[in-house]
Amino acid sequence: MxxxxxxxxxxxxxxxxIQGGMSVRVSTSSLAIPVAECGGIGVIGGSGIPTEELxxxxxxxxxxxxxxxxxxxxxxxxxxxxxxxxxxEAGIDMIITGAGFSRDIFKIGKAHNxxxxxxxxxxxxxxxxxxxxxxxVIVEAKEAxxxxxxxxxxxxxxxxxxxxxxxxxxxxxxxxxxGYEMAEMMDQYKADGVQIASRFVLSKECDVSDAFKxxxxxxxxxxxxxxxxxxGLPGRAINTPFVKAMNAGQDxxxxxxxxxxxxxxxxxxxxxxxxxxSKYGNIEEGLVFAGxxxxxxxxxxxxxxxxxxxxxxxxxxxxxxxGFCLAV
Length: 328
Known about the structure:
Elements: E1 6-8, E2 11-13, E3 17-19, H1 29-37, E4 41-45, H2 51-64, E5 68-74, H3 80-89, E6 94-98, H4 104-111, E7 116-120, H5 123-132, E8 136-140, E9 146-147, H6 154-164, E10 170-173, H7 179-187, E11 193-196, H8 198-201, H9 210-218, E12 224-228, E13 234-238, H10 241-247, H11 271-279, H12 303-320
Parallel strand pairs: 3-11, 4-5, 5-6, 6-7, 7-8, 8-10, 10-11
Antiparallel strand pairs: 1-2, 9-13, 12-13
Helix pairs in contact: 1-2, 2-3, 5-6, 7-12
């Protein structure tokens, strides 16, 4: 059986797979373009960068593919609305947002005929998003990398949200590493599609440093930990020397914010600065966000190969009816 397409607003993806939008400068057009070309939804991480830079990257992606290009913008960003309007002006297909909840974003989306996809971690917010006009909802559970809005695992969190969201697509996110798990979420849990992020860091097209990717490849299960974030949410990351020191109580407080990127920041360190260090290879001092199951992935593949594996694995399960194999 072929995987069903995923329709969000006026856009239909041939493969029901959204590539997670990872900031800062982790998922750029270099990654989003091949994802869109493979039939999924390519997502540019739009947080923590200047609006003009984001617009340039969106235009680059839109000029390179006829596939679907989205942008992920955290509500926690100080320039959230500038980034949203700038993305629309640059021709983005849809906007994905989380790390806070904006009611006004739905009015903006409606005014510009731009689908808004909301990332949530509770039935209450999922139901509200559907009511306010979200084109789709992404359920992001504790297994996800980066900022987390819940401590509940995906297979516990998804069912109660599925019960209250019925009119729009509901996407499963957090810890999905292969096509068998994708099939499980779509068949057994009735997800309309999945969002996957960490697997795409280990793609040839993701333009983070080799050291960043090696940190993923070297990570053991116990190396992926929770840490605090100036955003006000816990974050899941690899236990780099910086994270170890911070979790042990070392003070990294910044007296003056060098970036001024967040609406509210407790200044116990500059998250933009630490993410950029890892992006360019300084893993010792950097923050490397990663999903809970990153340790299961031990190869760097092309985006096309990732799509081929996910599709073949998922469709084999549907076709053969052998149940759900969770091994990588």
